[in-house]
From TrEMBL:
One of its GO terms (molecular function) is transferase activity. It comes from the Bacteria. SUPFAM superfamilies: GST C-terminal domain-like (SSF47616), Thioredoxin-like (SSF52833). Residues 88-216 form the GST C-terminal domain. Residues 210-236 are annotated as: Disordered. This is Glutathione S-transferase domain. Residues 1-86 form the GST N-terminal domain. Keywords: Transferase. Pfam families: GST_C_2, GST_N_2. Residues 210-223 have a biased composition (Basic and acidic residues). It comes from Xanthobacter autotrophicus (strain ATCC BAA-1158 / Py2).
Length: 236
């Protein structure tokens, strides 16, 4: 059994999609990040970085419990465990390259674009422009790559597609546009529609819907989500 530590944000969504595609049994463990539950000692014992997603696999290698954090690490771990969605062996270099392109580029820049457009104080125009333009550049890289192919890696659907889907699903919020955020990236738009139409996507979107997560935006949630913005309490 896999315990899946979840909050309804893009990186956990990738893992939810894999679990649904692979048909693996799992238990959802909600982590309400706006309440600061990611900082509790019990969760920090699973992910010292205090971020979701994370998993605990009670049937890990050698029958031992395995703890895995970071969405890319989890996707690789589960794909290797099940032998699914890894593509052909000869595609491994491309798979790793595109996974890390998403993990180190598309994902972080998308997250920062969301932060500076929706959470940061007004007036930080340089930061807003910087991150939104970098997101658009990453979208263009993927759009060009997908001009002559159906999937990101090789000839089949892989964890690279799942990983990219997690963030592209939030493109309207990332680019701060109300509709058709991928209109300027036709190949990416076609690819996204193809992935988004999969039956497992609807099931992945339903994960966690039975839990009431706290809305962000108040002082409590800002301190929970952005603790490095606040000085540590003075020692008495």
């Amino acid at each position: 059994m896999i315990r899946f530590y979840f909050h309804p944000t893009p990186n956990p969504a990738k893992v939810a999609l894999f679990l649904e595609e692979a048909g693996l049994p799992y238990e959802v463990v909600p982590v309400d990040t706006a309440k600061g539950e990611q900082h509790l000692p019990a969760f920090r014992a699973i992910n010292p970085n205090g971020k979701v997603p994370a998993i605990v696999d009670t049937e890990g290698p050698g029958g031992r419990e395995a703890r895995v954090f970071d969405s890319t690490a989890i996707l690789l771990y589960l794909a290797e465990k099940t032998g699914q969605f890894l593509g052909a062996p000869q595609d491994r270099p491309d798979l790793l390259s595109w996974l890390l392109f998403i993990a180190s580029g598309l994902g972080p820049f998308s997250g920062q674009a969301v932060h500076f457009q929706h959470a940061a104080p007004q007036g930080l125009d340089y930061a807003v422009n910087r991150y939104r333009r970098e997101v658009e550049r990453h979208y263009k890289v993927l759009d060009d790559h997908l001009a002559t192919r159906r999937f990101i890696v090789g000839e089949t659907y892989t964890i690279a597609d799942m990983s990219a889907w997690g963030w592209l699903d939030r493109a309207a919020r990332v680019l701060k546009v109300e509709s058709d955020p991928l209109a300027g990236f036709p190949n990416l738009k076609r690819w996204f529609a193809q992935i988004d139409a999969r039956e497992a996507v609807a099931r992945a979107r339903a994960v966690g819907k039975d839990h009431s997560f706290k809305a962000s935006g108040d002082e409590e949630s800002r301190r929970a989500l952005f603790p490095s913005n606040y000085p540590p309490a003075a020692a008495e």
